[in-house]
Amino acid sequence: MASPLEYLPSEHICSRPLGLCFNKIGDLYIVDAYFGLLKVGPEGGLATPLATEAEVVRVNFTNDPDLDDEGNIYFTDSRIHYQRRIWGDQGQAALEKASICLLNCGPTGTEALKNLVLGGIGSVTVVDGSKVEASDLGNNFLLDEGCLGQPRAKSICSFLQELNDAVKAKFVDESPAHLIDTNPSFFSQFTVVIATQAATSPGATTLAASPSTAPGSPTRT
């Protein structure tokens, strides 16, 4: 897969679809970073624009569509003030060099990684010592029945790699709490460490946000 930088100059003309969903009669809804919400009927053809604003406010980075049982469509506007193309070459280049570590790959963390992977992040590493359970299938869109019993971190990385094979996706099948206590220096290699579903206990080591004192020190959140 080519670098997103190669397409960036003309992307706002050619579009950047970031999500798809179907309704019960086969209409395909598309959300695009530049063109907002569009629809293609069951017969195919060109997409018809439906909305470029919400409550009189223009949307700038539309993604993550969903439909309820009544046919109402919902989507996210990830960037309120600036369109994606204002991000520029430097911003995209920095994104491609960044390395992200996710502790515990629950639905919130997985959604964050999905958006970063689609955007062309340099690499992601998932640290999670859990196995995929039936309860995971209902709240994590990257997991299916074939993943049951498998390491959750491994399964998530496999699907992230399918979304963008140019992104390096690695996993560590180990409890984040154990890794923090036994090998805290492991995290110094990352640009950002994201901790989700973190339970604190007396005596536990915590990755806390603090001012960096050395170049390249990771941001922890």
Describe this entry's structure for a reader.
The protein has 221 residues and is of the alpha/beta class. It folds into two domains: 4-84, no CATH class; 98-220, Rossmann fold, CATH 3.40.50.720. The protein has helices at residues 8-14, 88-97, 107-119, 134-137, 152-163, 176-182; strands spanning 17-22, 28-32, 36-40, 48-51, 53-54, 57-58, 62-67, 73-77, 99-103, 123-127, 168-172, 192-195, 219-220. It has a five-stranded parallel β-sheet with strand order 11-10-9-12-13. It starts with 7 loop residues before the first helix and ends with a strand.
Write the layout of secondary structure elements.
Elements: H1 8-14, E1 17-22, E2 28-32, E3 36-40, E4 48-51, E5 53-54, E6 57-58, E7 62-67, E8 73-77, H2 88-97, E9 99-103, H3 107-119, E10 123-127, H4 134-137, H5 152-163, E11 168-172, H6 176-182, E12 192-195, E13 219-220
Parallel strand pairs: 9-10, 9-12, 10-11, 12-13
Antiparallel strand pairs: 1-2, 2-3, 3-4, 5-6, 7-8
Poorly predicted tracts of residues: 200-217
**Biggest β-sheet, characterized?**
5 strands, parallel
What is the CATH C level class of the largest domain, in words? Answer: Alpha Beta
Q: How would you spell out the order of helices and strands?
A: HEEEEEEEEHEHEHHEHEE
Widest sheet: strand order? 11-10-9-12-13
Task: Give the CATH H-level superfamily of the largest domain.
Answer: NAD(P)-binding Rossmann-like Domain
Tell how many strands the DSSP assignment holds.
13
Shape: globular
Structural class: alpha/beta
